[in-house]
Amino acid sequence: xxxxxxxxxxxxxxxxxxxxxxxxxxxxxxxxxxxxxxxxxxxxxxxxxxxxxxxxxxxxxxxxxxxxxxxxxxxxxxxxxxxxxxxxxxxxxxxxxxxxxxxxxxxxxxxxxxxxxxxxxxxxxxxxxxxxxxxxxxxxxxxxxxxxxxxxxxxxxxxxxxxxxxxxxxxxxxxxxxxxxxxxxxxxxxxxxxxxxxxxxxxxxxxxxxxxxxxxxxxxxxxxxxxxxxxxxxxxxxxxxxxxxxxxxxxxxxxxxxxxxxxxxxxxxxxxxxxxxxxxxxxxxxxxxxxxxxxxxxxxxxxxxxxxxxxxxxxxxxxxxxxxxxxxxxxxxxxxxxxxxxxxxxxxxxxxxxxxxxxxxxxxxxxxxxxxxxxxxxxxxxxxxxxxxxxxxxxxxxxxxxxxxxxxxxxxxxxxxxxxxxxxxxxxxxxxxxxxxxxxxxxxxxxxxxxxxxxxxxxxxxxxxxxxxxxxxxxxxxxxxxxxxxxxxxxxxxxxxxxxxxxxxxxxxxxxxxxxxxxxxxxxxxxxxxxxxxxxxxxxxxxxxxxxxxxxxxxxxxxxxxxxxxxxxxxxxxxxxxxxxxxxxxxxxxxxxxxxxxxxxxxxxxxxxxxxxxxxxxxxxxxx
Length: 624
Fold this sequence. Notes:
Layout: E1 19-21, H1 25-29, H2 40-51, H3 57-71, H4 76-90, H5 96-105, E2 118-121, H6 129-151, E3 157-160, E4 163-164, E5 176-179, E6 186-189, E7 199-204, E8 207-212, H7 223-235, H8 253-263, H9 267-278, E9 282-285, H10 294-307, E10 324-328, E11 334-338, H11 345-358, E12 376-377, H12 384-403, E13 404-411, H13 417-421, H14 426-442, E14 448-453, E15 462-467, H15 470-479, H16 486-508, H17 514-526, H18 533-536, H19 538-543, E16 548-552, E17 560-562, E18 571-577, E19 582-589, H20 597-615, H21 618-623
Parallel strand pairs: 7-9, 9-10, 14-16, 16-18
Antiparallel strand pairs: 1-3, 2-11, 2-17, 3-4, 5-6, 7-8, 8-12, 10-11, 13-19, 14-15, 18-19
Helix pairs in contact: 2-3, 4-17, 6-7, 6-11, 14-16, 14-20, 15-16
GO biological process, one term: carnitine metabolic process, CoA-linked
Keywords: Acyltransferase, Transferase
Organism: Gadus morhua
């Protein structure tokens, strides 16, 4: 069964706390209200405010005239707004399908680096293949336990501000896969089919295996059963003349779509590909990587999860189209790589929290004394055309990987407790710090996007928070002015943080501007109209050229998310604030001479330290 379900956005959990309570998850989904369509005049007003710090006065006036004309009574804007309101009355969510189709499935860029987020998790204490397989067995059992709770409606319902959050995505995490196409991709989803798959795929040494993880009576396999099967897979995967078939999924989507058609002409290949696509999830057993300094270890491990390290490392151990890929290394490194057209950050966070909790417990089940079938190796018949496709994929992926600079660091001077002690939002604090850090490196502010979850609404995904604001620009321009007093700078800083917090609150209530603007544009296309001039304006292109792709990724553990920039001359910055420290990842492309991940990271560390001194002057700290 192949369907196109509701899809999702990248992982950007909100900076607000999420409470979990045990309840019937499926029943609670119906209690979640529909996502509202914001008022047109409000969105256009906020759009102009967002443009103000980015445009010179004459360009701003030119754009303002276009925006006012678009929104005037009887004009095109109100007509499109009426169309969105009609759509909202007749759909599960007026935006989500459009957003996923536009942002993901129609994108032709490769999935690694450009799209799939990676989560690098705290290193385990094993240091060889034996420990790798023991932990991988526990990991598989933990994910199967989570799936059982999803299927039986026993997953704790999450609440934000006392309101239940939408749970529609959880069943879609399993047995789903992105399928390449010439003009756009689609999602193949099998978990809700009449015969739900009972296997996962395991890849080691570039070779794929189908591993059944349920017994004949429908019970889940125990950890010891799974461990025995992984030992058999390891013994069967020493072949040295293998071809890294998974590399094909790293290609430009149109290129991979053409290769996909060629690959599936053969029945053996088609059966193997279908087994991967239909599997509950994929486990990647990575080979050892070259040892490096402790200082660079975190960056290397994040990169390994993100793209596999290159064609001479573990990149062939991936199927980038697969929704869930758990990566386990021999040195204790591990993480999760997910395809974001189907998976979204908050459900992924819930899954990982469950896995981490489960891994603290001993295996409670005894293994039944029954023989298990040998895991099935997935074979591929490779002709000269497919061989050529693989060679091209190797070259292109190595170019992409070598072009990406990954810098992961742990800022230890303070964590989220510091801004909280001063009545400031930790996320807004860091967002203003990022703009100041960028300004110090490049001499200007830039369009930046941060995302909050819209799971308070049925089928909701995410919304952008745009920065900088005028208040942020005022603070940035004043901060390095020696003529201004500390008190004046502190006041400007508080105003910038508070305004950003207000934007966050508005977005959480479904009153953000970015997705509404996109909806108006797509509604025009839906009605067969020309794209409105307001969206063809230079200012619109400038304001959506996201030079800072950012995301707060709060977690109960010292994990860090990593992904590539959205534009060639941009950065991507993820952060996980803990009580007394903050984990950061910064990425940039080496091909752009203007950007450098290490330089921005250094500027960010320096800026955060100065903001700490702004809140807590050294003299005041000493007096205390």
